[in-house]
């Protein structure tokens, strides 16, 4: 498991998608990420319980955001399956690599929740509130696995916006600054976070893990794809 690779991935994807790079702790303009992701990106339709189907969704024009701000409001409310308890596998154990991935991902989900809660406190779009609630359920599903496999939870008792992982802390600080700058930047932050989540989940799914872990990862993937589609409709 490449924990450092995952940290680099989430930071690079998130900041690149926002059009910024961190230089000495400051955010500066970066080249367009269109060449990496294509004009429309990849997203999914359907609910967040694994029943969605992959489809290309081109971002809506910014001029249409005001009229369409309700789009995707149900994205979080339809994600309840992602937080549902998954049955344990008798006698199963997990590797050190899977342990590290689970610890990283629960903080990554916390970062998403905290950023969306911040956005919800600043802007009226219900998408932020709905998807923040979904991310909280994602955290809960990962915490079930951490408890089941006796892995320390790095989010236990952590205040909003605080992280054990230094790189996630720095990333949160950068994203929070972007969110505070404008509503458009907050929506772009949502796109960036969900793209990074999907890349990291794909990496985790390639590891050899018990069926209950694989099921949770699949649920989280479906949720992240649905969230990405919701944000892209407004971004």
Task: Explain what you see.
It is globular and about 50 Å long. A hairpin with a 7-residue loop joins strand 3 and strand 4. It contains 7 helices and 4 strands. The strands form 2 sheets. A two-stranded antiparallel ribbon has the order 1-2. About 55% of the residues lie in helices and about 5% in strands. By secondary structure, the protein is mainly α. The longest helix is centred in the middle third of the chain and has 27 residues.
Annotate the secondary structure layout.
Layout: H1 3-18, E1 20-23, E2 26-29, H2 34-37, E3 43-45, E4 53-55, H3 96-122, H4 126-148, H5 166-181, H6 183-205, H7 211-234
Antiparallel strand pairs: 1-2, 3-4
Helix pairs in contact: 1-5, 1-6, 3-4, 3-5, 3-6, 4-7, 5-6, 6-7
Tell me the overall shape.
globular
Average pLDDT metric: 76
The helix content is 55-70%
Count, helices: 7
Strand order of the largest sheet: 1-2
Number of strands: 4
SS-based class: mainly alpha
Radius of gyration: 17 Å
Strand content: 5-15%
In angstroms, what separates the terminal alpha carbons? Answer: 33 Å
Low-confidence segments, given as residue ranges, are 1-5, 20-83
Tell me about the largest β-sheet: 2 strands, antiparallel
SSE succession: HEEHEEHHHHH
Summary, kept brief:
The chain has 235 residues and is mainly α. Helices cover 57% and strands 6% of the residues. The strands form two sheets. A two-stranded antiparallel ribbon has the order 1-2.
């Amino acid at each position: 498991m490449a924990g450092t690779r995952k940290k680099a991935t989430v930071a690079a994807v998130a900041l690149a998608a926002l059009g910024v790079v961190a230089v000495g702790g400051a955010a500066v303009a970066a080249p367009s990420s269109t060449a990496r992701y294509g004009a429309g990106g990849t997203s999914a339709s359907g609910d967040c319980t694994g029943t969605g189907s992959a489809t290309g969704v081109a971002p809506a024009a910014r001029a249409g955001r005001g009229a369409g701000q309700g789009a995707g409001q149900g994205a979080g409310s339809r994600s309840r399956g992602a937080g549902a308890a998954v049955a344990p596998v008798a006698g199963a154990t997990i590797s050190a690599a899977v342990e590290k991935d689970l610890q990283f991902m629960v903080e990554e989900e916390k970062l998403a929740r905290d950023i969306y809660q911040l956005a919800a406190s600043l802007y009226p779009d219900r998408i932020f509130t709905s998807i923040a609630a979904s991310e909280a359920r994602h955290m809960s599903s990962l915490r079930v696995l951490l408890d089941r496999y006796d892995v320390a939870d790095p989010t236990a008792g952590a205040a909003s916006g605080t992280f054990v992982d230094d790189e996630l802390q720095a990333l949160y600080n950068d994203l929070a600054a972007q969110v505070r700058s404008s509503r458009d930047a907050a929506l772009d932050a949502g796109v960036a976070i969900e793209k990074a989540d999907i890349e990291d989940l794909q990496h985790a799914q390639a590891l050899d893990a018990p069926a209950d872990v694989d099921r949770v990862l699949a649920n989280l993937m479906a949720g992240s794809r649905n969230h990405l589609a919701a944000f892209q409709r407004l971004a």
